[in-house]
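To close the chapter, one final illustration. This time we ask the reader to focus less on the individual chains and more on the assembly as a whole: which components sit near each other, and how the overall shape emerges from the parts.
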Amino acid sequence: MRKLTALLLAVLMMAGLLPALTQAETVKLTMGSWRSDDAEKVQALLDKYKELTGVEIAFQPTVSDQYNATLRLQLDNGTGPDLYYSRSYAVGQELFDAGFSMDCTDIPGVKENFPESALDAWQTPDGKVFAVPFAAVSQVIYYNKTLFAENGLEVPTTFEELIAVSKAFKEKGIEPFANGIASNWDILECVYLGMLPNYVGGADQRALYESGEKKMNDEAFLKSLQDFAELAQYLPEGFESLTNSDGPAMLGLGRSAMFIDGSWTCGTFADYGVEWGAIAFPAPEGATPAMCFHPDMGITGNNATKYPEEVKAFLTWLATPEGAQTTSTYLPQGFFPMIDAPITFADPAVTEILALNDGKVLDARFVWAKLLNMYTPMVEQLNALTKGETTPEAVAEVFADEQAKIVGQ
Amino acid sequence: MQTTVQRKTSSKNRLNPGGRYWIWYILPALLMYCLFMAYPMLDSVRLSLYEGTTGARTFVGFANYVRLFTDPEVSARFWGAFRNTWVFFAYHMLVQNVLGMLFAVVLTNRTMKGRQFYQTVVFIPCTIAVMVTGYLFKLILNPQFAGPTLRSMGLGFLVKPWLGSEKTALNVISLVSVWQWVGIPTMMFVAGLQGISEDLLEAADIAGANSWQTFWYIKYPLLLPVVGMIAILTFVSNFNAFDIIYAMATPDGAPNYSTDLIGSLFYRYGVAGKHPIGIPEPGVGAAISTAVFFMLLAGVVPTLRATQGKE
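The assembled structure is written out below.
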């Protein structure tokens, strides 16, 4: 009798295992992300990938401002997704150092197909790549073509012209800009860090500030803050309570002539039927034009995944020109693949924004690589500067103090 | 006599089986309470003595509390949020609850027409999601979107960045919250007033009391237990408030931390971490919530003593 029970149990257990064995053929992976806005588009991309390879990937995004915390919690508890979006620089590297993220150095194509500037964002100091570069964004100034034409104004090519144009619009009763400070991030990320490369230069110069060789109250920084303060005078009425999401509406409805923002917004203007264009942030006269082209999203694998082969296969696909081309047809407008290969976009406006990079010095957001702890003090200082509560000189001193705190460590 | 003796010596019968049978009645609730309230609360007290995110946590004793109260940046934020939360609470206590009582007295006036209608109007905002209220008021208070309408009505002086100024933001958000929740105390006071015996009011009327005297000497004292209950509910919900700040001001308590409440401070330190790094310090977050828990306790217990149980 006991034997019979044991046999029965064994058969039952085998039967229990059977589905698991057959399931192994249809692998189902999960992907974590902070881009909950893109859920539909990315899922379409992943469905396309399933069509190509038979591997199913489910997109499971988290609200952006809780992504880092949530992902960390999932990874710690062993419930992390098989694939996940990796933040650039230190924040992404932390997960690699903690042993969660896959070492992507040997993924075929990673070292060959991406430019150094892209790899730099997902690479440890000793050259280990912890995520495949996925997409970058650029900081631009959107403008309302109709308003410029109606008022006989030329699109500015230097900072001085930008101020002249702003003045002209203000005199005609049109708000020059649609930017506000209530969101507490875009005044730094889009406006100030968007204009900064024109004043301090590219990655090589940034490195000098990161090492402390150059101080953040030098002439270049002071000039950038003076120009920022001048620009701030042309922010719209009530800018103190305008958020980043008010901007597209103000530009789209013709309330304001320009909106300083990121390339990720370009898809929203279609809703307003506005004739819009985009320019890079114009450099002051005589300066080398530079631009903020920020490596934003990387994708990496979870070391604890049950399907390392499938995960690696997906990452390899991402690092091929064909993968990047397929990806960019599904990515939301304004997110650019970083691969060293010609990519075409369905939307000519997107191609135009990417073309703004041509012939310019490009760099990531200034504080992202090593000075991220300056983020909060910088936002606070810039908020005060836009309200006229402090001076560019005083702000530069605070910047230098904060820099010394980090560099001195 | 015999029966009472018998009851005392052996209380077992079909209606009163004796022993600890009652434990079965409270057991389900007790289990749920322990599992989902008491345990997490005690565990969060434990968490406040640890450092690091999950996984690699290290015991640090009271270091998080020391940091909370002595680190210049963290303590400035904590006391700033503490002060703001009291302001937020004061608005609810003085405006929301006083208005609630006023509305309740008016709504229980039998001679008024359309009482049901007004009662519904007062209560409707409570049924709207906070995120929706916040978003609507953000547009209404926005100089760019509401400005032209206000100016055309000759109310140009109202066009101000109410939510963008450190002086006005917290006051305005408090009033929006008051607008939304005034229906709750109103309903509770209405229920309380309806429970007052008709005889008392009639006697007062015969004695020649005017309506103010009737309110002050009869209705108000009898409503006192309700007042105490509402005060406690307001106190607890305000010290846990977070959603309206998230909806109207960002979790940073913009502008310049002037709308930062204990709830948003806790969210930044304990749940989401600070943008853009976004790695929280659950230990500090737990220390904040534990400190606030004891402050709430210190507020709630005397209020309960003063207002309840005077039957």
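The longest helix of chain B spans residues 72-107. DSSP finds 14 helices and two strands in chain B. With these observations in hand, you are ready for the problems at the end of the chapter.
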